[in-house]
Amino acid sequence: MSTQRSYYEPAPATHETATAALAAGDIDTLTDSMVGLALHDADWRWCQDFYLRLLDHPEEDVRATAAICLGHLARIHHRLDTDRVIPALRVRLHDPAIGGTVEDAIADIEQFLGLPPHTA
Predict the structure, then answer these.
(1) Which of 13, 20, 26, 29 is surrounded by the most beta carbons within 10 Å?
(2) pLDDT in tens, 83-100
(3) How far apart (Å, rounded) are the C-alpha atoms in residues 33 and 103?
(4) How far apart are CA 80 and CA 115, in angstroms?
(5) What angle do CA 118, 58, 24 make, to 5 degrees?
(6) 63, 47 Cβ separation under 8 angstroms
(7) Which of 15, 14, 18, 73 is CA-nearest to residue 48?
């Protein structure tokens, strides 16, 4: 688990790079690829489904990045399957490792998709 975070914008990634990193257990490449996909990949639905699966990953950084990336998709593409995404995120609000990150992701999604604020 990373103790200090710094911002940099990952380069565009491919579905193949992300899925290979997941299969190999390469967490750093996986999280970089996840953000690179969210920021640069036009296939928002593939990305959304990938992130939804990763909300259950055993590594905290992967779960947190998946939530953040769902917020990025809402900001960039102005669409998500909210009937799937919002409930999946709400379940993770009580995850002590990523609950705050999930709260921020939900707020981003609500803002960028024009949804009413949730009540936890």
Answers:
(1) 13
(2) 999 999 999 999 999 999
(3) 23
(4) 12
(5) 125
(6) no
(7) 73
Amino acid at 51: Y
Tokens of 6: 């710094």
Give a three-class secondary structure readout of the chain: CCCCCCCCCCCCCCHHHHHHHHHHCCHHHHHHHHHHHHHHCCCHHHHHHHHHHHCCCCCHHHHHHHHHHHHHHHHHHCCCCHHHHHHHHHHHHHCCCCHHHHHHHHHHHHHHHCCCCCCC
Copy the structure tokens of residue 8. Answer: 């940099």
Tokens of 94: 């009580």
pTM of the model: 0.90
Q: Say if residues 70 and 80 touch (Cβ distance below 8 Å).
A: yes
Query: Exposure of 51 by Cβ count < 10 A (0-12 exposed, 13-18 middle, 19+ buried)?
Result: buried
